[in-house]
Amino acid sequence: TIFAVLNIVTGVFVDSAIRTNGECRQVIIHEELDAKKEFLKDLRDLFHEMDHNGDGIISKEEFLHSLDDENVVAYFKALHLDITDTQALFQLLDTDRSDAVDIHEFLEGCYA
């Protein structure tokens, strides 16, 4: 739930900054980059939370087990990712078809 709140707060902050008239372009760019960095940090934290054994990859079993955690589910919903078909979601993230998702696959799949 904390990830969902952070994501919403970041979104509101960025939206507010963009809508404010008279803001300097550089300020808006800086804020957008900061928001992106924060969002990617949150995704990395989520990845490490899902990587139960700490080996740097999320196995299919770890992925499915993590989706039993309501915090993880809430965060995926905040990303507007449909997790009802968990097998399909895992396959989308596992771009190299290794039956495991590394940090790069996870960030690309969730951020793109």
In short:
With 112 residues, the protein is mostly helical. 69% of the residues lie in helices and 5% in strands. α1 packs parallel to α4.
What does this structure look like?
69% of the residues lie in helices and 5% in strands. The protein is built from 6 helices and 2 strands, in the order H-H-E-H-H-H-E-H. The protein has a two-stranded antiparallel sheet with strand order 1-2. Helix 1 runs antiparallel to helix 2, helix 1 packs parallel to helix 4 and helix 2 packs across helix 6. The radius of gyration is 16 Å and the shape is elongated. The two termini are 22 Å apart.
The shape, in one word, is elongated
The profile of the biggest β sheet is: 2 strands, antiparallel
Mean pLDDT: 84
Class inferred from helices and paired strands:
mainly alpha
Number of strands: 2
* Gap between N and C termini: 22 Å
Q: Stretches where pLDDT falls below 50 for ≥5 residues?
A: none
**What radius of gyration results from the CA coordinates?**
16 Å
Helix content: 55-70%
Helical segment tally? Answer: 6
SSE order in H/E notation?
Answer: HHEHHHEH
Strand order of the largest sheet: 1-2
Strand content: 5-15%
